[in-house]
Amino acid sequence: MSLRESAAAADEGADPRTGSARDLLSQWNGCEDVWVFAYGSLIWRPDFAWQERRLATVRGYHRSLCLWSHDHRGSPDNPGLVFGLDRGGCCRGVAFRVAGRDVPDVFQALWHREMSGGAYKPRWLRCHTGQAPVRGLAFVPDRRCRHYAGALSDELLIRAVRQAVGRSGACLDYVRETHRALNEHGIVDWRLGALVDRLAQS
């Protein structure tokens, strides 16, 4: 099966959804600081104002290249893959604390970045840090959306990462940059490390 055929198969029966920043902000008291949990490119390119950064772990989800990218890291004819928090396991990432005064602007920016394609659903997750646990906003894949790839064979995954290029750059660079950022924070992701090792073998 080709990359295009595999990505197209994910479209069948899909019901893409977009979130509402206003709905999520209705759960905020309008003044307190808010935490955002980053597990992929938000770690190395948050592009929003933050006051504090902590290493954090969420349980019940794991970092996975489980979403097709037909624009930023791939194209309709040659889709790439991007990270999502898929079900099961746990994920070590970074929690950013956003000052209350910045929350409305930061949420709007995050919605424009993460929610425009309907691939993610916003969730408040318990983030375990070296200090007290915090409640953090995270973007998890919508498994019913057309972008959801699910579990792929190693061959298909590696081919997509190696070949795909989108308007934000090569999928390979995205994967390597995420791995580099995790290493810089002392975060070990053995699955991603093994993938990067295989990608280096050409």
UniProtKB/TrEMBL annotation:
Q: Which InterPro entries match?
A: ChaC, GGCT-like, GGCT-like_sf
Q: Which residues form the signal peptide?
A: none
Gene3D superfamilies, per the entry:
Gamma-glutamyl cyclotransferase-like
**Residue ranges, annotated region (Disordered):** 1-20
Record's CDD domains?
GGCT_like
Q: Which UniProt keywords apply?
A: Lyase
EC code: 4.3.2.7
Q: If you read the UniProt record, what top EC class would you report for this enzyme, in one word?
A: lyase
Presence of keyword Transcription regulation: no
**UniProt key word Lyase:** yes
Q: What is this protein called?
A: glutathione-specific gamma-glutamylcyclotransferase
Organism of this sequence: Bordetella genomosp. 6
